[in-house]
Each structure stands twice: as C-alpha cells, then as structure tokens.
Give the backbone structure.
Amino acid sequence: MEHELVGLAGPGGRWRPVAAGPFTVLAVALALLPIRPVWLWAALIGAVAAIPWLLGAVPDARRRRPRPYWRLSAAGLERIGPGGLTMVSYERSRIDGLAITTGDGVLTVFHRFGRTAVGGMTSMGLEPLAVFVSARRLGIPMHVLDGEAGDLLDPALDEALRASGLQDDVPGGGPLPRDHAAEKRLLDQEAALLAAAHEPPAATPAPPEPHDEQRLDTPEPLPSRRRIVALGALTALLGTVMIIRIAVDGAGEFGARLAAGCWALAAIGGVLAARRRLLRAAQVRWTITAERLLVRARPGRRREIQNLPAREVAAVVVGPGLRLDPVSGEPRRADLAALAFGHRLELVARLPAHGLDGFQLAHALDDHGYRVITPGARAPRRPDYGLEGLPEIFAQVPGGRLVVADDGLGWADAAGDVVLKMPQDRIGGIELLTIAGHAWVRLYDSDGEEFFAAPLSALRISRTDLRDSARRAGLPVNDAEYDAYLSAAFHSAVSTLAADPEPAPAAVPVQATGTTAQPDLADGHDITFPAPAPPSPATAPGALLDATRRSRIGTYGMSVLLCEAVALLGAVWLGPELGGFNTTASWSVPAGLVIGLFGYWLYDRNRSQLRVSSAGVAMVTRRGRVEWDLGRDRIGGVGIDEASERMPRLVVWGPSGRVLRQITFPPDLDALRRACERYGVPWGPPDADRPAPPPPEL
C-alpha cells in the first residue's frame, strides 16, 4: 500500500534455545542422582543440556514467521499477526483523531464513543514523527497532549461528576492541555520534510565525488566477539571434561555428584551468557556514498544489509528513535537512530545508528549531499563560571569600568575617578581567554592562585585595550589566543615568500681581508628568507597532562583484585590435585599479587600522556613515542562527550563537529580546561554553524 506506516518488528527465524532454564535445572538434578551405569549418567546430563539447542534448531520452533506489527494506512490502524491476519483493527472511517501523550508516550484513538488507549509508542514500534506525518497525510487529525493517557476522562464521566458535584474530588479533572512545545517541534520537522521533498536541493560549493565513500563504525566491543566465543567454548569444554573425569573416577559419592552438578550449571550458564553477550556485541557499520547508503547492524549476515539508494531519499531525520533489542527482539528506545523519508513523505527505511556519534553521522550525510533534519539544536553547554567573584562595588558604581592606571588595575566611575585600586604587587598575572565566544579576563595573585574571573563585557573594556594598556604599564599579561593567531598569520605570510621552486643560491665565500662579498642584486634574482618551521604539537612547549593519581591507583587495585580472584579460583579447582586448597593458596595468592603489580607496572611505565600547546594537541608516551597529533587548525574543540550506553569519554572534535580522536585515559578536567584556555585550544563542542574566527576584539 502506498500510504502506510509499518511499525518496527523483529524478524522471525532466529536460532535460540527453547526452555533453557527448565532443562538446566533438570540437568543439575540428574547430576545429583546416583544413576548406574556411570556412562548413562554422564550421557543423560549431556543430552538434557543439548535439548534446548536441538529444539531451537527445529524449523517449526524457530518462529520463522515474522512477529506481529502495527500498521497505519488508509484502512486505519491495524495490528497484523502471523500470516497477515488482522488481530486488532481501528477503521479509518471510525477514527476522529489520534493523540500522543507526552507523559507515558501512549497513542490514543479518538472516536465517536470516547477515547481508547491503544498502547505505548515504543512497544508498538512507532516513532512520534513518523506517526505524526503519516496520519496528517491520511487526513487524520493529530494532537500532542501533555500528561498521561490515564488522566484523560471520559465525557460521560465528566457529566456524571458535574451532576453529583464530585468534580472537586478528582485532581486535575477534564482533558489535559496540549503540549505546544512538542507539537511545534513535530510541525517544524514536518515542514522541513515538505521543503526537502518539494524544493530543489541547495547547491553545495564542493560536491563529493560520485564514488567517494565514508565509513562510520561503532567502537569495537570489549571484549571482542572472538574472545566472547572463545570464552563460551572454553567454559563448555571445561565443564564437559570435568564431568567426564568425575564419571571415569566414579560418581558414587554425593560430593562428586554435587561437583558434577556445579560444573554442568557453570558450563550451561557460561554458554548462555556468552550467547547473550555476543548478541549485544553487534557493531553498527555505515557506508555513506553520494549514490547509496549501506547499513549493517548484525555482522556476518549479508542478507540483512540495508541498501538504500540516494534517489529514493528526500531527507534523513537523525535523532532519538527505536531499535530492536538484540536478545528479545522487541522494540526499545535508542539515543540515536535515522529515519529515511521519501519524496512523498513516506518512511522509506529505519536505519540503526545506536553507538555512533551524532555529530559525525549528521555531517557525513550532509557532506555527501543528503538533506539532514534534526529534532532541534541542543542547548549550548554553559561554562562553569559565574559572576559571584565580582566585588559588590562593581554594581554600586553606575557606569563603572575596568582601567589600567598607576601601574595597576582599578575600577573607575563614569567621571573617570578610580574608586577601587589593585596595586601591581598584588597582581601575579593577567590571562585573557575566550569562553563561549566571549572575551574573559582571569587574575592571579602573587602566589599564582586565581582570585577573580569575569567577562570583559561586564567590566566594560575591550580585549585589545586591556592587553595593550597592561603591557605598556609593565603588568604580566598572557593572551595565548592572540599570540597563536599572530604566529599562524606570520607563518602563512612567510611561507609564501619562502616558497621558491628554483634552487637556493650557493653561499658566498668570505674573503681573506675579513670583508664579506655582497651578492649582485642586479641579475634579477630575489632573495628568499628561510622561515623556521613551526613546532609540532608533540614538541611545542605546553602542558603535559597525565592520568589522575586516583584513576591510576584504582586501576592498580583492579588489576591486583582480578589476579587474586583467578588465583583463588585456581586454588579451589586445582587444589585437590596440588596438595590441598591451603597449600595451593599459600603460593598462588602471593604469585597473583606479584603478577598483578608487575603486569600493570609494565603498562604504566609507558602510559600515554596528553600534551596541549599552542601548536595543537598530541598523545605521547612516557618514552617519547608520539601516538597521534593534531594541529591547531584541525581542532574545533576538546571536551567531554556524554553518552548513556557507555562511560563519558574525552574527545577531540574537528571544526565541523566530527570526532577526530578519543582519549583513552581520564586526565584532570580542571587542569585540561585551564591548559586548553591558556594555549588557545577551544574547550567544549564546536559550533558547526559558525567558522572558527580569530579571538574576539582583535
């Protein structure tokens, strides 16, 4: 059907064990029974443990038919079951309108006899934007209500309450008002989709090559898929070998049968846990070209690669959405997903993007000619600065401003009289920097401690005036951004003079009389002045940031605890063969302590460190090896990237918003922020809509 919206539903046919829990309990129970002969006892344990996997391999038990899904079309809102059978149906002629409640995300159907809550949008596999656009295309009125579906009262109940005078006993009686903000956001996205479908695409200054592709992958899971498979296989093999060994030695005693039951439970549980972890360790891979989009969410399955031609896509909506749970196959919320809409505003494809970086995905699609729509610009991150450090006299003096007078800093009133003065001996340093696009000043005392920070706009003085006046007065002023900007301008200007395709003239020999022969300038040759190469980010003077002491001590402790746990488990399992638990633990525990300390020391002695300078950012080891470096012109921001499915990470963004590098160790954030601002490196995510300008008020 042309005008229809199909909800997200998991495919059928996945091979999964059937009734794994009951059969695991049965296998453990069989291991505890004194069954004779012993080979029959061991065979029954293995057969019962394998029954769930054999049942899952049966075609009829694998649920090859697709799961039930919801569909919104010209026929109405329907729930389609296996075989195409309609399970629930709301006919189009009987629907007066649809509503989405923001409190619980429930889709409600308005009809002539009242209201009916159909279900949650997430469980139905439907996105609010897709439902909003599809319903309006079908002529169904859409509403967004602020509250929950249970708060909507039936009109007949309202009349009964009014007649009995009990309406005061119902909190918040009556229909809830609409959520104007959410509805306006959906309307704005719908307008953007209409513009993308009907307006010609804007001309880009530098279109990409037709076969130029860009690949985006989510971070490789830790541990990797091969390690997960190896751990699951080793657990199953170890359990099988131990059960066979117990059977060979004789399982007449209850202690031996109890050990066999524990090994059977460990083997089955290890295999099931490895399978569950393997399903969740899938990697999302995007291949973006100007001709098509290739997306794969499940490695090893070539049939499930989504191939979407670019001619079928009018716009791609990048934002929060839905994804299929890898274990249960049910729809779940995702922090990032991509909805591809066609030129008739139909939903062409749902593209999984959980785990990718939103900045990078949006800019990669835009660079290859795709129209990208986002739910809305996020609120800018405010710097952790305030004006609580401003003296009270600043607000008490109308028209006051900061001045440089009498070899110090002062606060002058509107008439120019200095009412507050800070002598030069109290000023240890004046630092000028840029925070959130505004010029700020930071003052240090003679001990090097910061005691004042405020924007220059609040002090009513420009950056250039303060810098020049303070330098003329002999005050210590540091404006790293200004110096870096002038240095870059100088090197760019000198590089054009020094670039000469002709070979440099030979050196003129010195005469015996001590006079130097002057070169003949009448031959028309220009003299080139070789300019020294600017220092690299790894060698330029700057701040060297290391991992915090707390994180290093914590990592040392985790390494030792892991080795001690392995030593204790080895003493429990192998103790009877090596002289007993106490004897084995007496040497395995100290050995685990030494191995944990020495092993992490080998890694820690050459740990990575971050160097921040005016030339850029570099990652160097303690032995001096450069892992990577980025010049100042390639950096758009350094800061923290928050994510819900993983730990917050320290990243380096490009000017366009793409993630260039990820820093693998947690340095001191306060020291990193100060180093970035001191050496002119932007702190925080970049503003993709604005180019990187020189420092303010130059």
Summary: The chain is about 35% helix and 25% strand. The first strand starts at residue 4 and ends at 6. The CA atoms of residues 93 and 115 lie 15 Å apart. The mean pLDDT is 76.
